């Protein structure tokens, strides 16, 4: 344990120390952790956990895990129910399949079951999108982009009204329907048209199946849209930028 888990924890503590002076948002910190830290910790923890599973059965007798390693105990508990048949002839593909089958469906998939979600997730996870772009698009599709109506429902803000126009701020209002934002949205669509890209409706952009659109146009459209979303949801966004200025942000 000391030569594996403790050493790994020490390395990541050093990584955190290196980044502590960076001016990162909460979302950026989460991306940093998910990209460089959590997957490695889970991998090391799962390898160590298998020692307890093999020695004590499946599921393991978790009291055998030292109390000084609560994370290892949690990981051992999570991976304990991989069938023995998978363990005997294990492969990454088999373990991934059973782990994937045990995951609950995302809430948005349950709410909108008639959409072709496999295509939506495939587009969002396309490797030509950056990690940040994919993460932002996933948050958008999953309805996790903050807007006043939701924040008010969660009692985070005092009222659900748009700061720009006073109407109820839904997600659609925040990114298009507010009369102060709509000119930027229109310019975004113009930029898509200038670049000979697909110019879909807002509904198609929010649920990007984009069927029948070739890959280059599909990804180009998604890139411009998600950069637009990042721009209009940032606190530093200017509502009076010109078409040329917006083009610099999006293309």
Describe the protein's architecture and organization.
The protein has 251 residues and is mostly helical. The protein folds into two domains: 78 residues, no CATH class; 107 residues, no CATH class. It has 15 helices and no strands. α1 runs antiparallel to α3. The chain starts with a helix and ends with a helix. The mean pLDDT is 82. This is Zf-RVT domain-containing protein.
Secondary structure layout:
Blueprint: H1 2-19, H2 26-36, H3 38-56, H4 70-79, H5 84-88, H6 92-102, H7 107-111, H8 117-124, H9 131-141, H10 148-153, H11 171-177, H12 182-194, H13 202-206, H14 215-232, H15 243-250
Helix pairs in contact: 1-3, 3-4, 12-14, 12-15
Please give the largest β-sheet: none
Q: Globular, elongated, flat, extended or rod-shaped: what is the shape?
A: elongated
Cα(first) to Cα(last) distance is 49 Å
Which regions have little confidence, pLDDT < 50, spanning 5+ residues? none
Strand content: under 5%
Question: How large is the count of helical segments?
Answer: 15
The share of residues in helices is 55-70%
- Structural class, from secondary structure content? mainly alpha
Would you tell me the overall average pLDDT? 82
Which radius of gyration do the C-alpha atoms yield?
A: 23 Å
Number of strands: 0
Number of folding domains? Answer: 2
| Pattern of helices and strands | HHHHHHHHHHHHHHH
Pfam families: zf-RVT
Protein name: Zf-RVT domain-containing protein
InterPro entries: RVT-Znf
Organism: Anopheles funestus (African malaria mosquito)
């Amino acid at each position: 344990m000391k030569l594996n888990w403790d050493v790994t924890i020490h390395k990541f503590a050093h990584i955190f120390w290196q980044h502590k002076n960076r001016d990162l948002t909460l979302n950026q910190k989460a991306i940093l952790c998910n990209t460089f830290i959590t997957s490695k910790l889970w991998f090391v923890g799962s390898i160590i956990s298998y020692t307890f599973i093999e020695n004590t059965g499946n599921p393991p007798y978790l009291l055998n895990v030292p109390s000084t390693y609560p994370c290892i105990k949690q990981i051992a508990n999570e991976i304990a129910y991989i069938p023995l048949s998978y363990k005997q002839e294990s492969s990454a593909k088999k373990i991934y399949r059973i782990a994937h089958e045990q995951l609950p469906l995302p809430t948005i998939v349950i709410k909108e079951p008639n959409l072709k979600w496999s295509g939506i997730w495939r587009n969002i996870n396309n490797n030509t999108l950056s990690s940040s772009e994919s993460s932002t698009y996933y948050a958008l599709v999953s309805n996790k982009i903050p807007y006043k109506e939701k924040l008010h429902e969660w009692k985070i803000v005092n009222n659900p009204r748009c700061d720009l126009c006073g109407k109820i701020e839904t997600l659609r209002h925040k990114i298009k329907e507010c009369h102060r934002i709509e000119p930027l949205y229109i310019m975004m669509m113009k930029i898509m048209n200038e670049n000979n890209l697909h110019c879909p409706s807002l509904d198609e952009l929010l649920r990007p199946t984009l069927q029948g659109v070739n890959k280059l146009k599909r990804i180009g459209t998604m890139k411009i849209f998600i950069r637009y979303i990042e721009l209009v949801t940032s606190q530093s966004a200017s509502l009076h930028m010109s078409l040329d200025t917006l083009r610099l942000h999006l293309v």
